[in-house]
């Protein structure tokens, strides 16, 4: 087995770990988001809404894990969080009156930052932009 093949397998394993860790923290942030929204009366609890919030944040985590943007890890989390969370903000814009959709748009960036922080800094999972450079070498 050549070293190029072994390096590719290691890189792919690292990529999978990063995606799993980021997805897990997306699910954790979804639990926090749902708990806060339901307990404060911001959203009415329904099983569908719970699944929607958890799925939105988990997809946010997966997108952050997959992202290979060549920006600082904090900006990566904020940008990807705002982009993937915009689906939830759009839903709120169409169904809830008041400032909640705009507040949610900003909260998406915060949740993305937290997911990226725990993935990159706490669990030391390198961004995929760095692993792609390793793969090309």
Quickly describe the structure.
This protein is mostly helical and 137 residues long. The chain has helices at 3-39, 47-66, 73-95, 100-122, 128-136. The protein has one domain (3-136).
Structural commentary:
This protein is mainly alpha-helical. It has one domain. It is 82% helix and 0% strand. The chain has five helices and no strands. It is elongated, with a radius of gyration of 17 Å.
Broad shape: elongated
Query: Helicity level, as a percent range?
Result: over 70%
Rg, rounded, reads 17 Å
Q: What's the count of strands? A: 0
Task: Compute the number of structural domains.
Answer: 1
Tell me the distance between the termini: 17 Å
Q: Helices and strands: which structural class?
A: mainly alpha
Count of helix runs? 5
Average pLDDT metric = 86
Q: Give the helices and strands as they follow along the chain.
A: HHHHH
Report the uncertain regions.
131-137
Note the beta-strand portion.
under 5%
Largest sheet: none
